[in-house]
Amino acid sequence: MTVASTAHRPRARKIEWRLAAVTDVVTETRAAKTLLLDVPGWPGHRAGQHVDLRLTAEDGYQAQRSYSIASAPEEPHIALSVERLEDGEVSPYLTDVVRAGDRLKIRGPIGGYFVWTVQIGGPLLLIAGGSGIAPLMAMLRHRAIALDRDAASRHRVPTRLLYSVRTPDDVFYRDELARISNDDETVDVAMTFTREAPPGWTGFSRRIDRMMLAEVTWPPTERPQIFVCGPTPFVEAVAATLVELGHDPALVRTERFGRAGGSS
Amino acid sequence: MRSDDLRLDGNAAAGMLSEVFTADLTLARATCATCGMKQELGALITYAHGMGMVIRCSACDGVVLRIARTPTHVCLDLTGAKLVVFAAAAEEHVM
What we know:
heterodimer; A: alpha/beta; Rossmann fold; 2 domains; 5-stranded parallel beta sheet; 6 helices; 21% helix; B: 1 helix
């Protein structure tokens, strides 16, 4: 067997359950909070990976969900953005009850498939539906920190984010996205509002469709690295349209947020 | 709950598979035992249920992998994957 470069080889190690301490809870939208966690012994992650989070009730009943990590590997805390689902078993507890100082059982980082690092390069095309922005935010944050002040390498990784939300109140990381979009000319952020746009909005105000993707994406010949994350029907519609437009399916990586075992 | 809500990516099974394998199996290339299609497990469609997950081939919809957890055991069925090839752990290749 050929001994290839080990640079991208995962290191074999058992993924263990750890006790994370909540250091802060940040309000993102009416229905979503970001939990900042301090995780002793955290082995580090790559942008796009997730954690499993397990709650145990006093009677021993356990519920487990997966949450994408929204923070960059370079940041000191692990950030998990959680959207409250009204009929959820886990998310209402995380958004409404958990406070700084509480402890949560998590294991991770998990999943090497939906991962982007600056070494992979670009062009980088990120497409988010709703709370599906979380792992893509980790990629944007990682890119911003890893390529800090390095204009040449930023230009080598031109980046576009297409972010679909229902209303202006549903935008996660609003200020940070605006800052990235304003400060870094190599990052374009395009929003589309599917139910209600802000007053005076001149951008997209419909669901992502073929015409929008053709307008926002690079031509398939540029071979952009594409990451699509959101609810299952959203991801499947976007990914299928990208392939119809001629993008190589191998470059279209998807992360579906389902509701069983997903982020409910 | 609509059936769409249960359909995830192979990536979603990574946590459960980590209880069995030290390597990240979602990066492994599996050959479908039904049709011979080779694909990374992380790219395949996963159907998640309370007890476990079923990963299906994107070409023929055949079951490639099933994993379930009972209160006392983890059950893994790989009969749908004729061959699974994944990168060996980096440490083993230090020259």
